[in-house]
Amino acid sequence: DTEVTQTPKHLVMGMTNKKSLKCEQHMGHRAMYWYKQKAKKPPELMFVYSYEKLSINESVPSRFSPECPNSSLLNLHLHALQPEDSALYLCASSQSPGELFFGEGSRLTVL
Amino acid sequence: QKEVEQNSGPLSVPEGAIASLNCTYSDRGSQSFFWYRQYSGKSPELIMFIYSNGDKEDGRFTAQLNKASQYVSLLIRDSQPSDSATYLCAVLYSTLTFGKGTMLLVSP
Q1: Within 13 A of A81's CA, how many CA atoms are on the CB side?
Q2: How many other C-beta atoms are found inside a 10 Å radius of the C-beta of residue A41?
Q3: How far are the Cα atoms of A32, B77, B94 from residue A54, in angstroms, in the given order?
């Protein structure tokens, strides 16, 4: 199994909602990542988990809250988002730094 | 600020031609370099990585690295319309830094 699975594929939420994005990998990779990508822009790193511990937080607003319940799962909890947070949210995993396997992404629209 | 620069394109080549995609980076200490392909509406996919000066070939793809010039390139031989995508150069500093990507259009 070489996939990184993300759910949901599409999410529409209001600014007062609380929702979560989920990511799962079964490749035994030690590191998992959340990236945000806007149209025609490169992916921007948000968080890195290494061996289930948060190792990098790229100054992301607290309305985004990551969680790594175990080595295969990564969640991104969303609360009080703004319309400018609408983007494609990409989960990735890796065993070697830089060699990322991306999921298909969750396309988020904040109304 | 550690930077990765790419020409945004589009780079247009006819089917069967060689497409040459270029990337420069700012930090001489960088050791690891990657090329990702991203089709429109899809997520990025790693297609090549290179760690040493010189060329690395994989099928129709060749990655070239020149650390003295801080330059990485990707050559795609016998380009196909299915190669039409945005190609992201990425450099590993403390984290992976992506360039803005070059859009490649291969016309039949």
Answers
A1: 24
A2: 13
A3: 9, 41, 15
- Judged against a pLDDT cut of 70, whether residue A2 lies above it is answered with no
Q: Distance between CA atoms of A75 and A87, rounded to whole angstroms?
A: 16
d(CA B108, CA B102): 19
Count how many pairs of residues, chain A against chain B, have C-beta atoms within 8 Å: 41
| C-alpha torsion angle, residues B71, B75, B81, B82 (rounded to 10) | -80
Q: Give CA angle at B66 (B63, B69), nearest 5°.
A: 140
For A33-83, the pLDDT digits (tens) are 999 999 999 999 999 999 999 998 888 999 999 999 999 999 999 999 999
Beta bridge partners of B105: B12
- Give the mean pLDDT of A19-41: 96
Indicate whether A1 pLDDT > 60.
no
Q: Which residues of A touch B46 (CB under 8 A)?
A: 99-101
* Mean pLDDT for the stretch of residues B2-8: 91
**Which of B96, B100, B102, B103 best probes binding to A when mutated, by most A CB atoms within 10 angstroms?**
B96
C-alpha span between B56 and B54 (Å, rounded): 7
B68/A77 Cα distance (integer angstroms) = 44
